[in-house]
């Protein structure tokens, strides 16, 4: 059954996702990737009071909508956290991930293999943008909304434990291309070397990579995204444990089936993920890879009470500063799905 999944995924990859009709999740084989260097990982333009004068109460609007949507569906909170990550790693945190295709651009980031069919939360961003445009037209960028929403989803999914400020002042980008997603976002079958390099290319160190991976404490994955791990390979020291592998195999009835990332506390943002890593109860090769000698110490450190939570706040802020755009190379979009 699992090999059937892999075959399907392979077909999808070969056909290419530019058709916009392909299956969620990853296909194999996968092009070997050389992450590109971001031009400016530091962001001197961001500050905590950015909308204080120009749109007072903007952050409250974002938080209220995120809370409401998470009340309806906790999974959407996981989607918003991932949306922030996928925005920041491709073209910087500039809302390029939100752009729809147009006749002028038939294949934007959201149609890239890591995004198509699995990224969610776009409608939440639209809802927030609509409210903010009604309140202060043309002021709040879509890139800042994505960053605030990722922060607020973290807050609510942690049952208000993980609270932090997110500086703002990002401008929205005008460039979005599906072909840039594969090389900038780490694939689920990445080993520790690839993971380290992909994050380093964005100015994030090994500790921050391990800390941010902890976001896999919430949300789901399509079975096609870990087809390389099933059936279980008994001679692979990083394989899933047999009990977990059979439980996941049972849940993966088809390529479109989904499984919780954290089978213990699937809807709570906590440090359970790191226990799962040590117990070989995680989905991806990239999760299992954190048990490598290079990072095992960091995984264990994140089990110290409050350690991961503290590090996660800082790492999310740092991720939010990757290659941010300014007035010189960006704009404040009127509609988050279209350039002005
Ligand atoms: C370390 C490298 C990473 C890899 C290889 C990776 C890969 C993936 C994959 C393949 C999925 C499942 C997609 C699907 O099939 O539905 C996923 C889900 C998710 N990822 Fe990651 N990810 C990584 C890091 C991160 C980071 C840094 C964050 C955020 C800080 C993040 C947040 C999430 C969340 C919240 C989900 C669940 C989304 C949902 O339920 O809609 N991931 N990731
Ligand atoms: C449109 O797509 C191309 C790649 O096909 C990309 O190079 C370009 O930057 C995109 N333009 C916009 C406006 O997003
Ligand atoms: C990690 O994966 C890359 C790309 O597939 C490969 O070139 C490299 O040899 C691998 N490294 C290890 C330590 O397995
Ligand atoms: C199983 O894992 C071993 C050790 O990592 C590896 O050499 C072998 O190629 C794997 N087999 C399959 C079928 O992936």
TrEMBL record:
Its main location: secreted. Disulfide bonds join 55-136, 88-93, 142-336, 223-252. It comes from the Eukaryota. Its cofactor is heme b; Ca(2+). Heme b binds at residue 216. The lineage of its organism: Eukaryota, Viridiplantae, Streptophyta, Embryophyta, Tracheophyta. This is Peroxidase. The record marks 82 as: Transition state stabilizer. The active site is at 86 (proton acceptor). Residues 1-24 form the signal peptide. Residues 45-340 form the Plant heme peroxidase family profile domain. Belongs to the peroxidase family. Ascorbate peroxidase subfamily. Belongs to the peroxidase family. Classical plant (class III) peroxidase subfamily. InterPro entries: Haem_peroxidase, Haem_peroxidase_sf, Peroxidase_pln, Peroxidases_AS, Peroxidases_heam-ligand_BS, Secretory_peroxidase. It is found in: Secreted. Ca(2+) 2 binds at residues 217, 262, 265, 270. One of its GO terms (biological process) is hydrogen peroxide catabolic process. Binds 1 heme b (iron(II)-protoporphyrin IX) group per subunit. Binds 2 calcium ions per subunit.
């Amino acid at each position: 059954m699992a090999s059937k999944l892999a075959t399907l995924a392979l077909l999808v990859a070969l056909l290419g996702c530019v058709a916009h009709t392909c299956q969620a999740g990853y296909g194999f084989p996968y092009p070997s990737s050389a992450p590109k260097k971001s031009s400016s990982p530091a962001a001197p333009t961001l500050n905590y009071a950015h909308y204080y004068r120009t749109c007072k109460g903007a952050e409250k609007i974002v938080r209220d909508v995120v809370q409401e949507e998470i009340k309806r569906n906790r999974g959407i909170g996981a989607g918003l956290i991932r949306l922030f990550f996928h925005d920041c790693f491709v073209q910087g945190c500039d809302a390029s991930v939100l752009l729809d295709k147009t006749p002028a651009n038939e294949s934007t980031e959201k149609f890239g293999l890591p995004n198509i069919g699995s990224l969610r939360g776009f409608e939440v961003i639209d809802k927030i943008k609509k409210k903010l445009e009604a309140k202060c037209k043309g002021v709040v960028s879509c890139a800042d909304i994505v960053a605030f929403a990722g922060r607020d989803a973290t807050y609510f999914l942690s049952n208000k434990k993980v609270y932090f400020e997110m500086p703002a002042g990002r401008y929205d980008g005008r460039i979005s291309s599906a072909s840039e997603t594969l090389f900038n976002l780490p694939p689920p079958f990445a080993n520790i070397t690839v993971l380290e390099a992909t994050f380093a290319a964005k100015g994030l160190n090994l500790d921050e990579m391990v800390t941010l991976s902890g976001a896999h404490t919430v949300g789901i994955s399509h079975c096609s995204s870990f087809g390389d791990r099933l059936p279980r390979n008994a001679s692979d020291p990083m394989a899933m444990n047999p009990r977990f592998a059979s439980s996941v195999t049972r849940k993966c009835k088809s390529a479109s089936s989904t499984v919780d990332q954290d089978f213990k506390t699937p809807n709570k943002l906590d440090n359970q993920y790191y226990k799962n890593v040590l117990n070989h109860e995680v989905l991806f090769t990239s999760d299992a890879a954190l048990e490598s000698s290079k990072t095992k110490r960091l995984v264990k450190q994140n089990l110290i009470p409050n350690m991961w939570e503290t590090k996660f706040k800082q790492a999310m802020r740092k991720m939010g500063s990757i290659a941010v755009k300014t007035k010189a190379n960006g704009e404040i979009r009127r509609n988050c799905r279209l350039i002005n």
